[in-house]
Amino acid sequence: MTETTHARPAAPPPGDGAKNRSPEYRLAQNALRGLRHDLFEDAFAYRPLPRRRTDGPFVRRLPGRLRSSAEHLPHALVGAVALLTLCAGALGGGLPGGDVLALLAGLLCAFPVLATLVRPVGAFWLSLAVTPVVAVLNGSGGEWPWMPGAFVCHLTVLIVVALRTRPRTAAWMWVLTAAYAFLSDIVLGGSYYYTNSGPMMVTSAFALLVVSLRHVRHTAQQEVTAQQTVTAHERSRRTLLEERTTIARELHDVVAHHMSVVAIQAEAAPYRVENPPPELERAFATIRENAVAALTELRRVLGVVRAEDYEAPDAPQPTLADLDSLLANVRDTGLDVEKAVTGAVRELPPGVELSAYRIVQEALSNSLRHAPGASARVEIGYVLGGLGLRVVNGPAPAPNLVKPSPGAGHGVTGMRERVTMLNGEMTAGPTDDGGYEVAVFLPVASVNEGEA
């Protein structure tokens, strides 16, 4: 007896059927899903109308009491339109103005408008529901299907709800309004000779188009603002990295010099001792190998941070001894600058000398750029715990032919990076007389502390 087994085709996983549908089907499905999400899910959810912002260019100029009252301006406008709708519903129909039914029609027209303040989507459905009721109450009216009060009510509701939601919701409200107008004219029109469905559809389409364009413009502005914020943040980070790279390049010669000295001294040290023990020779050999290895890695790292067009300077890195030549060059450009030195001048670590020189150079460059024609003063203080720097310039003279030029904002960032690298402190800001001041303190360990 032979048994034959036929393998059944595997059932497609859930969701694969939708993927095999046509693009038109998926488009219709997504559209209906959007309709359900915008107008049916939580249609009567509580969504109060937010207050108006008071930081606008016009509102912030108002006095305090008016500015606080301006927060409720949207609510007041909706209330005023609701009152207008009440009057139109009570007086615009075929009923006399003092009749109870006329007052009821006016209240029914005003209620959906007021509902937009707290339940916007629900107000749209209330407006659709109120429209035939008001038409029945005004049985002798000459307009169909929107009586004057219902016309103002529904148009107001469409605009307010569109302002509070998004363009897709506005489009669906217009489609449903058109469907109601078609059914009321074809099925429920009865003996009415005039229909105002056309004016309603044209007016509402134009109003919703304007609101949708406002939404698109506002969304585009938000995206541009967010992109500008991200761009500014990235530019700041790039500037910071560039400044750190520049500092690393400049300090390479200083660090490489010290490592080379360590390697040479470690190699020559055994020859200065008569009959050195093997342990001492091995120790100095290890020191030299580590120094050479560190110097090699330092050069490799420098090759990474260097730009393709970077050229190593031929001259040695500047120090505070070269500050007089810098001040002479600055004076030639038209900046009246003087220097004051306090304390006992002494030799500082090369990194501190280089950073101090670059900070003074950048501060004077900023003075030339932002305050052309002003005078500046450079103060250098040699104190027990480090080096103090102060570069201050006065305001630019009022009748000045040379206009200040905007900078890229890299100068202060570079100075702060140098100060932070040396665990120093820095303050920079405008002075009381309209000038600008940069004050820096760079700590330097004393000889005793270094030996400890």
Describe the protein in words:
This protein has helices at residues 16-19, 23-40, 64-69, 73-91, 100-115, 120-137, 148-164, 167-186, 197-268, 278-305, 323-332, 350-370, 410-421, 447-451, and strands at 336-342, 375-383, 386-393, 425-430, 436-443. The chain is of the alpha+beta class. A five-stranded mixed beta sheet has the order 1-2-3-5-4, with helices on one face. A hairpin with a 2-residue loop joins strand 2 (375-383) and strand 3 (386-393). The longest helix is centred in the middle third of the chain and has 72 residues, at 197-268. It is elongated, with a radius of gyration of 40 Å.
Succession of helices and strands:
HHHHHHHHHHHEHEEHEEH
Find the structural class using helix and strand composition. Answer: alpha+beta
Distance between the termini: 98 Å
Task: Report helical residue fraction.
Answer: 55-70%
Share in β-strands: 5-15%
Rough shape? elongated
- Report mean pLDDT, rounded to a whole number: 81
Radius of gyration, in Å, reads: 40 Å
Order of adjacent strands in the largest pleated sheet: 1-2-3-5-4
- Unreliable spans are 1-9, 448-452
Q: Helical stretch count?
A: 14
Q: Main β-sheet, in a few words?
A: 5 strands, mixed
Q: How many β-strand stretches?
A: 5
